Amino acid sequence: MGYKLITLFLLIISGLGQRLAAQQTEVGFGLGAAAYSGDMHRFYDPRKSSIAATLLGRYNFNNTWSVRGQAVFGRFGADDADDPLDPQAAARGNSFSANFLEGSVVFEYHFLDYREWKARKPYSPYLFGGLGGAFIIGSYEASATPPSFFNPVIPFGVGIKFKLNTAWQLAVEVGPRKTFSDLLDGISESTAPNNKLAFDFGNVYDKDWYYFTGITLSYSFYKSACPVEKLTW
């Protein structure tokens, strides 16, 4: 009888392992908005956003930690004419638009065990952060700004995930991207016209940022576990 108990135990563990392993890998896509902050817009303003999209792959180490690789592509820009009451913007008279393609790898930490099949709450807030790089292709009035360049970025942010069923998950997140460039908007120390100080047109000590806010839908490669054989005692 002992060997039958051991066999039953091994079959159960094997079935659970298959159930969990089948949900370790996900692929997904999402739509959202991209925006910029820098010398022309000091703060993130979602009203001044453009459409963006993302493709992602995710590996779930367990129900708490995941790693995600993703590509984000979109557009952001700004125009000083949108702020007629700002004397600095009126004197500067700059505008720009830029397309970007970002690749990044981030780790996710989930606060609730929402992926467990018996979870009482099929959702969880989460944090994420990692490293990446972005290729920027821009159109600028400032001729000193290169039309395209690559820059490292640090993506991080917060979100919330919802387990729709055993295979599908929905996530909503907002993620700033810290860059190491002051050229996203075409304004830097070298672009201050008429030998004026760059302080008249932007803060040369602050780097530019961009943001992605979006909704993603991901699919877990789910397979039903093999049925446990009925043992004859």
Description:
The protein has one domain (2-220): Porin (Beta Barrel), CATH 2.40.160.20. Helix content is 12%, strand content 48%. It has an eight-stranded antiparallel beta barrel with strand order 1-2-3-4-5-6-7-8. It has helices spanning 2-22, 87-92; strands at residues 25-37, 50-60, 65-79, 95-110, 123-140, 148-163, 168-179, 209-220. A hairpin with a 4-residue loop joins strand 2 (50-60) and strand 3. It is elongated and about 60 Å long. It is mostly beta strands and 233 residues long. It has two helices and eight strands, in the order αβββαβββββ. The model is unreliable at 8-22, 194-200 and 227-233 (pLDDT under 50). The chain starts with a helix and ends in a 13-residue tail after the last strand.
How many angstroms separate the termini?
Answer: 7 Å
State mean pLDDT (0 to 100 scale).
80
Q: Residue ranges: pLDDT <50 for 5 or more in a row?
A: 8-22, 194-200, 227-233
Tell me the CATH architecture.
Answer: Beta Barrel
How large, in whole angstroms, is the Cα Rg?
24 Å
> And the CATH topology?
Porin
**What is the succession of H and E elements?**
HEEEHEEEEE
Structural class: mainly beta
Approximately what portion of the residues adopt beta-strand conformation? over 45%
Shape: elongated
Number of helices: 2
Helix percent reads 10-25%
For the largest sheet, list the strands in their spatial order.
Answer: 1-2-3-4-5-6-7-8
Main sheet attributes: strand count, strand direction, barrel closure: 8 strands, antiparallel, barrel
What is the highest CATH level, the class?
Answer: Mainly Beta
Number of strands: 8
Number of structural units classed as domains: 1
